[in-house]
Amino acid sequence: MVGQNGAGKTTFARVAAGLVRPDAGSLDIDGRPLRLGRVAGARAAGVELVHQSFALPPSFTVAEALEFGAGGGIGLYGRRQLLRRCRERLAALDLDVDPRRRIRDLPVEAQQGVEIARALVTDAKLLILDEPTAVLPPSGIEALFERIRGLRRHGVTVILILHKIREVLAVADTVSVLRGGRLVAGPIPREGADEAGIAQMIIGGAEVASADGDDTAALVGARQVGSAGARGTREEPPPAAREAVLSLASVSTAKEPEEPALDRVSLSVAPGEIVGVAGVQGNGQRTLVKTIAGLADAVDGDIRLGGSRANRASPAQRRALGLRVIPFERNSEGLSLTSALWENWSVRELMRRPLLSLVDPAALRRQCDKSLKAWGVHYAHAAQNAGALSGGNAQKVILAREIDADARLIIAAQPARGLDIGATAFVWSALREAAGRGCGVLLISSDLDELFDISDRLVVMLSGGIAGTFAPPYDLAAVGRAMTGASA
Amino acid sequence: MTEFHEFMVAILRSGTPLVYVTMAGVIAQRAGVWHLGLEGVMIIGACATILGIVLTGSFPAAIAIACVLCVAASVLLWFVIEKLGANPIIAGLGLTGLGIGGTALAVQALFGSLAAVTAPFGVPRLGEAFGSYGALSIFVLMMPFVVWGMWVLLRRTRFGLRLAAAGEHPLAARSVGTDPGRTRLIALASGGVLCAIGGAELAAGGLTIFAQNMTAGRGFMSFAAVIFGAGHPIAAAFAAMFFSLVGVAGIRLQLLFGASIPHDVLLSLPYLATILGVWISGRMRGGAKAATEASELRDY
Amino acid sequence: MNLGFGAIPRALAFIVLALALCGVIFELAGYSALLMFEAILEGAFLRAGGWAQSLRWGLPLFITATGVAISFRCGFFNIGAQGQFYIGAICAAFVTHLLAGAPAALVLPVTFLAGMAGGALWALWPGYLRLRSGTDEVITTLMGNFIAALVLVYVTSGPLKDPSGTGQQAASPLLPAVYRISDSQGISPAIIGIAAAVALAMWVLVNRTPFGMLASLAGRNPTMVRFQGARLWTLGLSSFVISGALAGLAGTVELLGPTGRIASGFLPGHGFTAVLIALVANLSVFATAVVSLFFGGLASAAIYLPILAGLPAAAIDIFNAAVALFITAKSGLLDRLLRMAKLPT
User: Do A338 and B299 touch (CB under 8 A)?
Assistant: First the structure.
């Protein structure tokens, strides 16, 4: 099943798994109608869903995570018996994980493995995997597909929800395309599937204004892009001679909760340059953003912003130096969903003034209106809550706040996550424009197609350190090896 | 030696009600409810037990009444939090107010004054066989088993795992067919029974008396014990016992030093111990991080 | 500017729910709910001088409630207004005791400062523990209430004991009239002026300064404002201190105004009622003023009920608690009810 973000893929999966009750229609498993909106019913019929961002309580051990979904009743168990049972299940799936480890301490690949094992505890006949490849490095994707082929041999039907054509064609027997909540085509047998046609069906009529052929390919994951590198978006190459807007020299930090510490990270961003940061999530990217933003302390090394040493600078001082952050979590780090749009937008202005000075909210609201209109945000009025906006519009509000005339360095963390194709293309062009005006951009993403398409340079993070630096044309295999730490 | 036994009896007597209520807090916390209504449910249990004994003359009937009322109060709290989406902290404080006010009202309605109500007898005692400890109630003897049982339920059963999943990751719980809301109902309702026992022990375990506002923050201390014990039944039980140990030690100190330490300072020792407890657990959780954690009125 | 009036139908709906629950409880306890409500209404607003009494009880409540509102706005559950109120009053009482005999022009300003400082101090330590080591502020402020009540017992039966005092309640001596800012009726230009100044200052602070606006945003999403460079430490600790200082100010007003002394366990429901007022008013300064008068009326009814109607004062506590139980409710159930009510129009 393919489709862009917002096409209804996750809703489809949740309806099938009984988590969402559809308004109309029926659902048959093995020819028998299923009671709608009942997880227990769906599971009894053999339907299991593996969520995109995993649904395992982080404090559980692997053994507990496998056990909690098994069967009803009180279910008394002994510790040794539980571990034995868990080891058997993991072995059957060829998973090498210590059942006593906690979920939150596991790397994402292992978490995904455990969640699949959890789903198979009840002998699932139909396994739905929602965007399982989004978090994996290239080698992990290959391993996952191998595991899926193994499941198929054991008679398990698998519905893979993906948004990259390349991956679908690599593993699926048939392809169906969703767009705007409708089934556009399918099931198409793989043999008869043609890449360009599917790409067209995924995009539909949506105009992707600034996107050229490579952008389009990157948006639907058709073929590997980036062989041309930064291509002709900017005429001149980034002037490396000018002083870097950001340079980290051998920066290390203390361990952050649930994220590895930075380990002697060195990187620099020149004005007008887009530097991509690749890596499997959970390898220190969040720590990197926090360290640059001043929310985590560097215990060692040098952080320089625009040439001046900023190790001791407060977050506010760093922002005054031109640092802007588009954070990972739009809805928790980027916006206050229960606050008005103008309040969200005004924070930048408020931070520039003394805490006890008088401000005029009406003027702020007018400025906000102007800025949001200029960025093409669709909204009713500036007093409406940010939570009422769609993902793409919410991201535009953040862009409107973070990309201002004084911005020198923009940290963009997963700026296009969850956005549909049009909004993604908008974000990309905004970042390119900012770079074109001389801003440095540090783009952190787990989507290699995105990184290959718009980065001038690429670094790969692994376990809190830099595992490699790449220049276009990018070599997928080499980047993939760096992401997993496999030696070349 | 008798000195020591007396000390132990005092600690067990003041600690047991706290432990029962703490267990109610633990099961609620595991299911994802920060239960600040413990104080209110506990005082309902205390009042209902004494009034029940006075009115029916039977202890089993009294404890049954207490259980029914406490479960009803807990279910009310569940309804307000789960179905009306109220803030658990404020709603819990509201329930506490209802408990304290409601019991005062009930006493006044029945006896026409706010004076303490004395029952002719209380919770059955352990009896001669237990020597110096014979004057303690059967609930004291039951207490370790209840704590152990709570540990087994929460840490060694699939039900306990699903309960914890409902609290920690509702989507995970829903994905395996568990309704987090119903799980919380079960947790709060069973917590109601525990609070009833805790209240009964407080009012009728030693003296058999109910006075206005007699819980005096014990429910909140139990809540703090849950935090101090990081939601683990045995750790939380020890935390509760620690708080009451401090209280008993304070009274002993008074006997030793007489008037040189103001009585009211010693009375505040359990409260200070409670603050110390939550402070330590705050530090253990990583300090500054917790300062930015989502709080209940926040929007995510 | 959102004055919080949009939330009024919601608040009213929950007050109706609370009334229904109270009715059930009154009936269960063997009182006639209707009679009870009638007596409360009469005691609060309808009897002669009822509105004056609402003001007398409502103004100190308003001062404390605006303080509670600012800490809630910043996302911190400072439930300790009662303790801060007590400690403020105690500090103020000590000052009047030490400076006894000095001219009022000297004593009064120092007393107010001492009262506010005392209240601020009693909010400072929970705030510090919260922001420095993540200590749950609900528990610390609640425990602070119990400790402050014990300190009050100690002070009124020890250092500040009224030697001529008889009866059960320990209390400090009644202040001489020169230090009083009102008689025992509790309404004077001075008190109204203080409340008005607090209202104005807090309105400006909350709605017209970066501090207030950032604090409100921090309360809804601290991570977001941290990413924007704001210091939660400054915002949060200031909110705690301001809320404590205002509770202390209310304590001082009670001491110098209507009560005229401190007594062990006086005004026991003050802090909790202030929390309620702040929540019912949806943390808005103007709405807080209106709601304070309502709850001030209820507070005066608590005195009226046992004396004039022979009904238990606990009825008011029960009503307040029932409001607390429901007031933060927000979910679809109510929205659906409201929408159903609107459908015919």
Answer: yes
* Domain boundaries, given as residue ranges, for chain B: 2-285
Q: Which residues on neighbouring strands pair with residue A129, listed in sequence order?
A: A50, A160
**CB-CB neighbors (< 8 A) of A338 in chain B:** 299
Q: Which residues in C have their CB inside 8 Å of a CB on A? A: 1-2, 204, 207-211, 213-214, 216-217, 220-221, 223-231, 234
B266 to chain C: nearest residue by CA?
C150
Measured CA to CA, the distance from residue B139 to residue B46 in angstroms comes to 14
Q: Which CATH architecture has domain B2-285?
A: Orthogonal Bundle (1.10)
Phi, psi for residue C170 in degrees, rounded to 5: -70, 140
Q: How far is CA A333 from CA A104, A285, C94, C190, in A?
A: 20, 15, 47, 46
Q: Is A220 part of a structural domain of the chain?
A: no
Q: What is the mean pLDDT of residues A47-69?
A: 88
Give me the residue from A67, A337, A339 closest to B161, CB to CB.
A67
Same domain, A166 and A315: no
Q: List b or e across C316-344, with b for residues whose CB sees 16 or more CB atoms inside 10 angstroms.
A: bbbbbbbbbbbbbbeeeebeeeeeeeeee
ipTM: 0.88
- For A194, other C-beta atoms within 10 Å of its C-beta total 11
Mean pLDDT value across residues C153-174: 82
What domain range includes position A310?
231-484
Are A354 and C210 a contacting pair at CB < 8 A?
yes
Our measurement of the distance from residue A397's CA atom to the centroid of its chain's CA atoms, rounded to an integer in Å, reads 19
Q: Report the DSSP pairing between strands A465-470 and A28-29.
A: unpaired
Q: What rounded mean pLDDT belongs to chain C?
A: 87
Contacts of A355 in chain C (CB under 8 A): 209-211, 214, 234
AA identity, residue B129: A
CA distance A346 to chain B (A): 18
**pLDDT tens per residue, range B53-62:** 999 989 999 9
Do the Cβ atoms of C214 and A325 come within 8 Å? no
How far is the C-alpha of C203 from the C-alpha of C69, rounded, in Å? 11
| pLDDT tier at C2, thresholds 50, 70, 90 | very low
Our CA-based measurement puts residue A408 at a distance from the nearest CA of chain C, in whole angstroms, of 15
pLDDT at C4 over 60: no
Q: Which CATH architecture is the domain C5-342 placed in?
A: Orthogonal Bundle (1.10)
Structural contact between residues A206 and A392, judged by C-beta atoms closer than 8 angstroms = no
Q: Which of A296, A298, A318 is nearest to A250 (CA)?
A: A298
Q: Does C104 contact chain B (CB < 8 Å)?
A: no
Q: CA of A161: how far to CAs of A12, A14, B120, B178, in Å?
A: 10, 12, 70, 24
Write down the domain spans for chain C: 5-342
Kindly determine whether residue C224 and residue A295, on different chains, have CB atoms separated by under 8 Å: no
Q: How many CA atoms lie within 13 A of B194 on its CB side?
A: 28
Interface residue A392 vs chain C (CB under 8 A): no
Is A361 in contact with C207 (Cβ distance < 8 A)?
yes
Find the length of chain B. Answer: 300
The pair of structure tokens assigned to B230 is: 């990081």
Residue of A325, A350, A410 for testing the chain C interface, max C β-carbons within 10 Å: A350
- Domain count for chain A, please give it: 2
Nearest CA in chain B to C216: B298
Taking CB atoms and an 8 Å limit, are C2 and A383 in contact across chains? yes
CA distance A438 to A271: 5
C296-314 confidence digits (pLDDT tens): 998 888 888 887 777 888 8
CA dihedral (B182, B183, B186, B191) positive or negative: negative
Residue A442 and residue A246 in contact, taking contact as beta carbons nearer than 8 Å: yes
Contact by Cβ (8 Å): C142, C77: no
pLDDT in tens, A392-427: 899 999 999 999 888 999 999 999 988 888 889 999
